[in-house]
Amino acid sequence: MRAMPIVLMGLAVCLVLGEAQAQQPGRSRAVERAKKALAEPFVGITTDGRVRTGLFTRKKTGLSTLVVRQAAEAVLRGLSEAQRKRTLFPVDHSEWRDWANIHRFPRQGVSLAELGESQRQLVYALLSASLSARGYDTSRNIMRLNGHLAELVQNIKEYGEHLYWLTMMGEPSATEPWGWQIEGHHLAVNFFVLGDQVVMTPTFMGSEPVEALSGRYKGIAVLQVEQDLGLKLMTSLPPEQQRLAYSGERTGQAAMLAAMFSDNIIVPFKGVRASQLSPAHRAALLELVGRYVGMMPDDHAALKMVEVQMHLDETYFSWMGGTEANAAFYYRIHSPVILIEFDHQGPIALPGDRSVPTRRHIHTVVRTPNGNDYGRDLLRQHLLEAHRGQPHHVHPQSGQPHRHPHRH
Is 329 helix (H, G, I), strand (E, B) or coil? Predict the structure, then answer.
């Protein structure tokens, strides 16, 4: 297959709405949010609107991404020509940013629900090759719980195990940048590859419910360790440090800041700083971070944790909500190189007061602040290096590649 050309990221977002889609207010509001967000050039999450430079560098890691590339190539071979055309985008296309964790949203790419079983297994093999065993199990269990939700509310049109969409940006390569994205209700994974470097953010994982108490998936549960370790860390801090971390009661529908269409938000540091913690509490904080980073393959996760540790003294832990055994709460871990949010949400699909957070509905998100979500800073460096000696390819003031509208 001929490689698709790299077209610098466009400002236009391709959102194809059918008549039935346009009639759903929730979907329409989300589409408007997407249009507004994607009309902004990508900057990245910052603490004050200014990107801190020099945090992420192109380098040889010595780690192999061969199995990921081979699994992606197998997926493409297994698709029909029409499916491949819908799945493939240029590596710097705005499709990266056009993900949503809600169930009502128009999506690009190929749906797992439309694939045959053999094709679907190739996609699962790509997830397995790209994620750690725990990352893969968590992702698949989120899908299964979405199927369980369809059974609970008897709505197979909006919920289901296979209502997730795959896209690839760029074509699998050992040397050129590329990546894949899978997204749907409560699951969005962005996996960028450049040589032997990997960036796996934004990653959104959540579920409602978080445990299946009946049905064919009875016993499956997700994100309970992340919940319990967060509460354990908060309650183990000395009273003065708990006061520093605490930022108020957990009320209302959502406390999370960095979910869909939030690529450029400003999030000031807040809470207790890791430099103030005891060695035991610093270790507990790193253990908690490791639960999220550990969704990546072990070797790449270890590299990311080294990066996290380098900035540990600049890492903040903040808390909102109660600390009782069954409390609903929100916490955030924030440093120059990682942003993690955990949030108990009010019920949406299940019965209950939406304004009252519950442990039956969890959202989590992991971001790379300062411009490297979607591997964008690494891609920028790659393009600058590739076009060295060709200054017309690079914006003379910002050093950023020109962005041209692109349609597909």
Answer: strand
Identify the CA nearest to 372 among candidates 38, 13, 57: 57
Look-up of token digits 């064919």: 216
381-396 pLDDT tens trace: 999 998 774 543 433 2
Q: How far apart are CA 203 and CA 181, in angstroms?
A: 10
CA distance 29 to 26: 5
Instruction: Report how far residue 47's alpha carbon sits from residue 336's, in angstroms, rounded to the nearest whole number.
Output: 9
306-339 pLDDT per residue, tens: 999 999 999 999 999 999 999 999 999 999 999 9
* φ, ψ for residue 156, nearest 5 deg: -85, -5
Q: Write out the two tokens for 283.
A: 């270790």
Which DSSP state fits 210?
S
183, β-bridge pairs: 165, 188
- What are the Cα distances from residue 105, in Å, to 131, 173, 183, 184, 205? 25, 30, 11, 9, 17
Degrees (nearest 5) of the Cα angle 279, 281, 285? 115
**Tokens 């902004």 map to which residue?**
40
Please say whether the beta carbons of 343 and 330 come within 8 A: yes
As a 3-state breakdown, the chain gives helix, strand, coil percent values, each rounded to 5, of 35, 15, 50
Q: Which pair of structure tokens corresponds to residue 201? A: 């953010």
| 230: CB partners within 8 A, 6+ apart | 288, 329, 331, 342
